[in-house]
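ok new one. same drill as before - structure tokens go in, u give me an amino acid for every spot. 70 of them this time. try not to just spam alanines like last time pls lmao
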């Protein structure tokens, strides 16, 4: 998400994702991202929980994020 995205737009995007989740009924979503403050805040905003601070089990600069619905 770019820095210029306002809270109004972020709430609309979160509402859209919540509606899609209700319709599609996924069990989980896993994503990997570069370890940076902005991306970490967005993941937390959307409800993801950080699983570990590396992709390969070493300090590689990536984070694994998980969100579960059950």
């Amino acid at each position: 998400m770019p820095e210029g995205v306002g809270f109004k737009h972020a709430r609309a995007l979160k509402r859209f994702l919540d509606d899609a989740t209700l319709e599609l009924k996924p069990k989980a979503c896993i994503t990997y991202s570069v370890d940076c403050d902005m991306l970490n805040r967005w993941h937390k905003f959307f409800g993801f929980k950080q699983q570990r601070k590396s992709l390969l089990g070493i300090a590689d600069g990536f984070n694994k994020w998980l969100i579960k619905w059950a």
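The mean pLDDT is 85. and btw The CA atoms of residues 1 and 47 lie 15 Å apart.
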